[in-house]
Amino acid sequence: MKIINFLPLVLVVVLSSCTTVRVATDYDKNANFNNYTSYAFYKPGIDKAKISDLDKKRILRAIDNELMVKGMAKSENPTLLISIFTKEKERVDVYQRNFGYGWGWNPWWYGSYYGNSISKTTEGTLYIDLIDAKSNELVWQGMGTADLVTRNMEKKEERIREIVREILTEYPPGSTKK
Model's pTM, two decimal places? Predict the structure, then answer.
C-alpha cells in the first residue's frame, strides 16, 4: 500500500526532471546594466551558430519577446549586441537494476532478476552573449542546458521559448533572488 502512495510522487519527479533547464550566467561586474536599453542581433555571431535557420529564427523570436518584456527595444543604434551559439551532445544514462539476489517467486517473474537499461537523449546548450555595442566587449553571458525536443514542432518551439526564458530570467544581474 505504501508503494501505491509513493508512485505518484515518483512520476511527478521523473516528469518534471524532463522539463528542467540548467542555467548558469557570468557578467562583467564593472558594467552598468542600467545603461543598456536597446539591442540588435549580431549577425556574424549568429551566422556561426551550428543549428538550422529555422531554429535560429525560433531562438531570436524568443529572445525578442523576453527582452521586450524587460522593457528593452530593438534598435538600429543599440547599446547591446546579441549573439548566440549552441552545443549539442548525446547523453547516455545507464540504469542498473540488480535486485532479487538469489531465487524467489513473484507474480510477475520467477527467479533472480539482473539487468541494465540504457536511455539516450540529446542534450543541447544555448549560449546567449550580450556585447557592449560601443566597446565591443562581452558584458553578460547566459547558458542554458536542457534535453531537446526534435519531433513535435509545437513542443520544440515551446521548449526553445522555455530555455530562452530561463536564461534571460537572470538578466540583468541581481534581478532575481537566489
Answer: 0.73
